[in-house]
Amino acid sequence: MYTATPIFAQTRGRTLAHHIHSSRIRDIVYLDVLLVPETPIGIGSKVQIHTLEQLDRTALNARGNEPKYIAHHSDIEGTVTGIRTMEADYVELILKNEDKWSATEYAYLAMAYEEGLTVALPWWVVLARWLLRPFLPNTRRIPLEDPEAVEWDDL
Q: What is the pLDDT of residues 22-51, one digit of tens each?
């Protein structure tokens, strides 16, 4: 049995993943990773997703600080199989969900690109990214939150 790296992400959206030869209705979930993972994520990494739900400003945790998010366990766990998109400030990885009872087939993990901190990509991808950096678009930025901003819910 493997140990999956926990990933804390906020849901950005969902879309249907339609397969002609399948009677199951499954979806693709788009996630923004807001906390730095314990270990950098790369192709072949085993990860387990915990979703972050944004709290209102009146919610206080036990320390008296105002948490921004509460973390919940999700039914998404599997292996990172590839790179979907790469921009100047972030990279989006494809996660194949291995939970057969889940309605989610794939998760797209968008995270800030910090080589060695958030992601660990093969050397040829890092080189290609370095060469193409002036030409990569910069459409959005995914901020990394402080772990203190998260209240843990039964994890």
A: 666 778 999 999 999 999 999 999 999 999
97 touches 107 (CB < 8 A): yes
Per-residue b/e over 134-147, b at no fewer than 16 CB within 10 Å?
eeeeeeeebeebee
DSSP for the chain, written as a single string? ---PEEEEEEEEEEEEE--TT--S-EEEEEEEE-S--SS-B-TT-EEEEEEEEEPPTT---TTS---SEEEEEEEEEEEEEEEEEE-SSEEEEEEEE--TT-SEEEEEEEEE--BTTTB---HHHHHHHHHHGGGS------PPPPGGGEEE---
Q: What angle do CA 78, 83, 89 make, to 5 degrees?
A: 115
* Average pLDDT in the chain: 84
pTM exceeds 0.70, yes or no: yes
